[in-house]
Write a structure and sequence with these properties.
Elements (H helix, E strand, L loop, with lengths): L1 E5 L3 H12 L3 E5 L3 H8 L10 H10 L3 E4 L2 H5 L4 E4 L14 H13 L4 E5 L7 H12 L6 E5 L9 H6 L4 E5 L2 H11 L6 E4 L1 H32 L3 H9 L20 H14 L5 H25 L7 E5 L14 H11 L3 E5 L4 H8 L5 E2 L3 H5 L4 E4 L4 H4 L3 H7 L4 E4 L6 H6 L3 E3 L5 H7 L5 H12 L2
Parallel strand pairs: 1-2, 1-4, 2-3, 4-5, 5-6, 7-8, 9-10, 9-12, 10-11, 12-13, 13-14
Antiparallel strand pairs: 6-7
Helix pairs in contact: 1-3, 5-6, 9-11, 9-12, 11-12, 12-13, 19-20
Bound molecules: uridine-5'-diphosphate-glucuronic acid.
The site of uridine-5'-diphosphate-glucuronic acid has 21 residues, from helix 9.
Length: 459
């Protein structure tokens, strides 16, 4: 099939390369000429495992090409994907200016029947407007159909997610458009949900909002565990074996971030308000997420003091999650700003996101370390802010040797508590108070349990 993908961000670039790898001929379009040159040279504008190899392979095999000309890009395409950004505007709604602009340009350059598909995350009714715009700008001379085909890929594993999707959602009022899209995806052998435009648009938002709800839910359970003396990771495990609940997205931490969840939850809430509906649950989800970082910082100030002047804190993690260099809406950066605001000297490290973070934190007089041990050197406390697997591999004894202090605040519950405690650290996490974990590990020390319980109830 001949395809055109407009926009070379996460969704567009991954989409274009995977579509071409499936044997389709794909032209990727972006107005940013420098970006296009970088991509052609195999220098990806984003860090995404497997992406560079996939792009170069398909360019070499002549299935994938890039251009800055939308007219050229859509000329031979049977299906045109709109994958441009829809950032959050000041009111919490999605800024759709890029979508409208692309729709106009498609209309002006339409040279034959095509299916115009929106992959960008867009609010209810957007595809209907896209249809109107294309109709207006093409002067009704050419036939076309519009479809919604939202993407569910996660940054950091987007290539794999797209290759092995759980489901494909496609919405359109045209049976012909749905048939064409089915042909593109049918080899995946995963369920296809074919529906109307508006349902497809809501499926995307509802999916992200539901996952965000799971995270805020477990974060509240974690706060309860901290008070009641239970271990949230065991609670999540116990819940997760129930297939109706599932284990995914039940990891407590300092809150969700990234370019999707915060924006999409706010946009769905805004859409509900526009429909004169107060989506109270979503309000709670956002509020819990906003507060989560403050609970974490409070734990730090309770131990180190409210004035952090003279304290050196090592912060591991800058990206909004592991396996990405993306720092958009990163809670790690929020925590770093709060700690710096309280006077702490910070030594920070991230395996991929340091350069991006410098752009945001640059003037805060922060030391950017070359690895975890370098960050920990001379520190009074160590904070884990992003769930990078490699932080787990840090040797507790070696950390203890280079640090001045002996406290670890694990905002992602990823470190090995036993190893840290054996090395002489005091370990704090999110929803796993010390004595509860000892119990769940099978250490039945009554003294620990009673002391822990007394400490908790005296709070
Ligand atoms: C999310 C969705 O998971 C994708 O399905 C969707 O396609 C994408 O948004 C999008 O709309 O484009 P992504 O933003 O890449 O993907 O990141 P996630 O892996 O979902 O993580 C989001 C945030 O939640 C991160 O800050 C992560 O640290 C946090 N998180 C995740 C938790 O705090 N706990 C968990 O159990 C899982």
């Amino acid at each position: 099939m001949k395809l055109c993908v407009i926009g070379t961000g996460y969704v567009g670039l991954v989409g274009a390369s995977v579509f071409s790898d499936w044997g389709n001929t794909v032209v990727g379009v972006d107005i940013d000429a420098k970006k296009i040159e970088r991509i052609k040279a195999g220098d990806m504008p984003i860090y995404e495992p497997g992406l560079s190899e996939l792009v170069l392979k398909n360019i070499k095999e002549k299935r994938l090409s890039f251009t800055t000309s939308l007219k050229e890009g859509i000329a031979d395409a049977e299906v045109v994907f709109i994958c441009v950004g829809t950032p959050q505007d000041d009111t919490g709604a999605a800024d759709l200016s890029a979508v409208w602009q692309v729709a106009e340009e498609i209309g002006r350059n339409l040279n034959g029947y095509k299916v115009i598909v929106t992959k960008s995350t867009v609010p209810i009714g957007t595809n209907e407007r896209v249809k109107e715009i294309i109709k207006e700008t093409s002067n009704g001379k050419v036939t076309f159909d519009v479809a919604s085909n939202p993407e569910f890929l996660r940054e950091g594993s987007s290539v794999e997610d797209m290759m092995k999707t759980d489901r494909t959602v496609m919405g359109s009022d045209s049976p012909k458009a749905l048939e064409i899209l089915k042909e593109l995806y049918t080899h995946l052998n995963s369920p296809i949900v074919a529906c109307d435009l508006r349902s497809a648009e809501i499926i995307k938002y509802a999916s992200n909002a539901f996952l965000a709800t799971k995270i805020s839910f477990i974060n509240e359970i974690a706060l309860l565990c901290d008070r009641a003396g239970a271990d949230v990771s065991v609670v999540a495990e116990g819940m997760g074996y129930d297939k109706r609940i599932g284990k995914a997205f039940l990891k407590a931490g300092i809150g969700y971030g990234g370019s999707c969840f915060p924006k999409d939850v706010a946009a769905l809430f805004r859409t509900s308000t526009d429909q004169a509906y107060d989506f109270r649950l979503l309000r709670g989800v956002m509020e819990v997420n906003e507060k989560q970082k403050y609970h974490f910082v409070k734990k730090i100030t309770e131990k180190l003091g409210k004035n952090l002047n003279g304290k050196v804190i090592a912060c591991l993690g800058l990206a909004f999650k592991d396996n990405t260099d993306d720092i958009r809406e990163s809670v790690a950066l929020e925590v770093i700003k709060l700690l710096r605001g309280l006077g702490a000297q910070l030594r920070v490290f991230d395996p991929q996101a340091t350069e991006n973070a410098k752009g945001v934190l640059g003037d805060l007089d922060i030391y950017y370390a070359k690895d975890g041990y370098d960050a920990a050197t001379g520190a009074d406390a160590l904070c884990i802010l992003t769930e990078w697997g490699e932080f787990r591999e840090l040797e507790a004894k070696k950390l203890k040797k280079v640090m001045r202090g002996d406290i670890v605040f694990d905002g992602r519950n990823i470190m090995n508590r036993d190893q840290l405690e054996v090395a002489g650290f005091t370990y704090f996490s999110v929803g796993r108070p010390a004595y509860a974990v000892r119990q769940s590990n099978g250490h039945k020390s009554l003294k620990n349990r009673v002391t822990g319980a007394l400490l908790n109830f005296s709070k």
